[in-house]
Design a protein that fits this description.
The chain is built from 7 helices and 10 strands. The chain has helices spanning 6-20, 26-30, 79-88, 106-112, 115-135, 145-151, 204-221; strands at 3-5, 34-36, 38-40, 44-48, 63-65, 92-96, 139-142, 168-172, 177-181, 189-192. The strands form 3 sheets. It has a 6-stranded mixed β-sheet with strand order 6-4-7-10-9-8, with helices on both faces. The protein is globular, with a radius of gyration of 17 Å.
């Protein structure tokens, strides 16, 4: 498996975003960032929104982390990713579009109402776009509504709204899902789904259909 380290290649850019941030919420900045380090290339990439700040994750200070299927301490949030990976016989990797640590997503709305917060979010999204592009994923699974919005599915270029990461998507009738067009990731299939764990997670039947659909698409593109 080919991999790359986000820490090795992008730490200086992440540090710069934090050093230059002038957001009103100083508490959020003081927690530091948390970023998934090791990205597996050319496989299934799950996209989240931002790391949590709860329980054992409440230590302060920025850090990078890795998920290992053999790690018994890995957060249960990732269990469904492991299950899909096993069902489709592909290694999995995960990346959050934003790096600040907060469990309640209302903080994103607060940042979007702060003129400096908009730039803070935008800079993280532009870097995440570079990292996702470098990952050259075989399939993207976007498991958060706000992540979908930031990636550009809801954008209106004429009104210049919802552009953010500025990916372009079109629905492929042969695959039954979206794919990226007009970029370095042209043709990469994308599944936009709700969360896979938690109170608003997919029910078991919908989860099984998702696994079936990913397998179906893999057979089509391989």
């Amino acid at each position: 498996m080919e991999k790359f380290s986000v820490k090795d290649f992008y730490k200086s850019e992440i540090d710069q975003i934090w050093d230059e941030a002038k957001i009103e919420n100083k508490e959020l900045l003081s927690r530091g960032y948390a970023v998934h380090d090791e990205i597996i290339k050319n496989t299934i990439l799950f996209i989240g929104i931002n790391p949590s700040f709860s329980g054992k994750n409440k230590k302060r200070g920025s850090y990078f982390f890795n998920n290992n299927d053999d790690d018994e301490k890995m957060h249960k949030y990732f269990n469904k990713f492991k299950k899909i990976s096993k069902e489709i016989d592909l290694p999995w990797t995960h990346f959050d579009l934003l790096y600040f640590r907060e469990t309640n997503q209302k903080y994103i709305s607060e940042l979007l109402n702060d003129k400096n917060g908009i730039g803070f979010i935008y800079n993280q999204l532009q870097l995440s776009k570079k990292i996702i592009t470098n990952a050259v994923p075989k399939i993207l699974v976007v498991t958060n509504t706000m992540s979908r919005h930031f990636m550009g599915l809801d954008k209106d270029k004429q009104k210049n709204t919802g552009v953010w990461m500025d990916f372009d998507f079109e629905f492929d009738d042969n695959l039954g899902t979206y794919k990226i067009i007009d970029s370095e990731l042209d043709g990469v299939p994308v599944f936009f789904t709700s969360m896979l764990t938690g109170q608003r997670a997919l029910d078991n039947g919908s989860f099984k259909r998702l696994v079936w659909h990913i397998n179906f698409v893999l057979k089509k593109i391989n």
